[in-house]
User: Fold this.
Amino acid sequence: MEDSNNQKQFLSTFYKSLKDKLSERSLRLVASNMAEALGFGGIKYVAEVSGISRSTIIRGHKQSEETKYLELEKNKQRCSGGGRKNISLKNPKITEALETLVSPYTRGDPMNPLKWTTKSLRKLSLELAEKGFSVSHVTVGELLEKAGYTLQSCKKSHEGAGDPDRNAQFEHISKTCLSFFEENQPVISVDGKKKELVGNFKNNGREYQKSKTPLKVNAYDYINDAKGKAVPYGIYDIGENQGFVNVGMSADTGEFAVNSIRSWWINMGHAIYPDAHSLYINADGGGSNGSHSKLWKRELQKFADEFFLNVYVSHFPPATSKWNKIEHRLFSAISMNWRGVPLDSFETIVSLIANTTNKSGLKVQSALDTSEYQTGIKIDDEELATIHIKRHSFRPDWNYVIMPEKVSVIS
Assistant:
């Protein structure tokens, strides 16, 4: 067999070009057939110029002669059973050992150190090594996926111990709402939205921008860099699907909450309900509009006196604030509208809120409240006694009406 450097160089280049174009099987068969055509010494020669091992060339020769070749035609690179064996098949106990680490509450030692640490793939790989299983973090991930594990975040669903009157209170609220709707009297849902730092800070969410030109915001949310703190308090008219948000610059107090309701009534409510004699408020059980807040009740008395309205109030049971309609009918729409936009000024916040809408036809107005609200105001028993309040027979702490001092239509 005549040999030359040029011929070797040519064949070496030939095989290198084939490696990018042919599958393992096809390249193996080309090499074995060329070796067979060269005759004696062909396997050694082809192995030298192609870089393919002699054993691979021999295996290709056998495959071309055996019936297994027909099976390989079914788009398979290797014969059935070829390739590295799955570690879970080689060592079935590794899956069980892995689950004792991932699920220490139900299996394994309850004092396992991983119980209170992050279960990262690399950490699990090291823990398995200590148990005698040598496996990479990538393989750990594959084993977890096969065992039915996926990366998941916590889901807020546990509301704690429910009050025994929870369902009955919901039924009472629903029944009262219907009676107010029948008489064309206003029903509002109220609550304070999350306070927001005002300044060039990152706001969660994303908005379309020109590619590679994101809005530049401060790297850190230092309160010293803020222009202030916005205190949004919302009023949602359930019957009219309209909202009003009073953006405060001070504190979220009972006085601020009722003043927000006052602003809604002056700007929106009175025009919609010119013949109203009563107002029904649905509020959470805590915060500035809490069921035990004396300041909240005193300010409602002032509101009732000012506009000659009977103010009915129902508070949601503890741990049920998510059922307050303002949360998912108004506040969620506001959060969607200003997502990804820095709340760099109070004017920006008011404008973004006022431009909020959704497919259901929501309309929103907003105003800036520059008043300073004092915290820690105490209402003594003497002042509390001046409040004209009538409590409902069912859960009087949650359901009551505050009547105007001079005009009362409730016996």
Summary: The radius of gyration is 37 Å. The CA atoms of residues 46 and 257 lie 88 Å apart. The chain is about 40% helix and 15% strand.
